[in-house]
Amino acid sequence: MTGIIFRYLFAEVGRTWLVVAGVLVFLTLGLGFARFIADAAAGELPVNTVLELALFKLVENLEIVLPVSMLLGVLLTLGRLCRDNEMAALFAGGAGLREVYTPFIVVALLVATLAGTMSIVAAPHAERALARVGAEGANTVIQTLEPGRFRTFLDGDAVFYAEKRDSDDNLRDVFIRVLRESSAGKATQTIVTAERARQQIDDDTGAVTLILDNGWRYEGNPGDAAYRVIQFGEHGVQLAPPTGKASDDVDAQSTLLLMTSDDPEAASEWQKRVSVPLSVLILTLIALPLGRVPPRAGRYGRVIAGVLVYVIYINAVHLAGVAIEDGAIPAPIGLWWVHLIALAIAIGMIAREQGVFARRRSVAGASA
């Protein structure tokens, strides 16, 4: 009998969690995809990197998706069981809270393992990959320039146009116009025309330079005494500054490296990564008593309360992490006190559901 109950509830909560997680993943991926599509449309990224960037961003966002999806999965499953009187039937058949809650906790352990893998191992790799692809996107600026179409930069102060692209991926018959404000407050323009534009990347610094070949440079406004006309064989314009080879961002560093560092920011980061699987388990323990609703209540009656609990809990973790970075909370204390408080609340709610406090009050009354 116990095995039948376990398999049934395990399948119910697992199926609900998969649906909720799938919807959240789809929304997260869609938002990231739309953001990078907009950057590509603005010429800030090559189009062929959009999907890759969106997938890497999704890996980072799973540390938010997995805890809240587990919370909602438990609440929705319990809400349906209570609404359809299946929970009452289980208890009437002799099942206790242990038999009912065990499948939920097993699913939570599986999701927590996945969440820990994502936040502790995969997310730093995704962050480094995002930085790498972004740098490669900056290093392929010339590929984002479409021949036969005017492009504006610098809030409209710069205009770029190329007639065509040759077989070597270089642009031909280039026109560039840049407006600048002189020291006297007067707007002046610089016009550059060239037969060819090609890209040059410094292997050491990552700086990107647009090299213009065989052209003319016109500086100033026609009719001014300072108007200059310069013919050049080769002229360089820096498009992207040096990027460096390594990132010092703690988000991109491995968890083991952060744990060996004495930097408060590093301590805050690795503790937040470990907090993701812990939050999955603690939120599940909170959702188990929270999701029990009267049979006539709506299936979604406790969802809003659950989301509110999630927001308070996650914000408390975030604020504690900021306090660690600022030195207001010592790193050994860290975020653990937030999890202990949430765990104590969960245990108290489960104990109250089992009638522990009521039995203690009745025993105390009898002894009096």
Automatic annotation (TrEMBL):
Protein name: ABC-type lipopolysaccharide export system permease component 1 LptF protein
Primary gene name: lptF
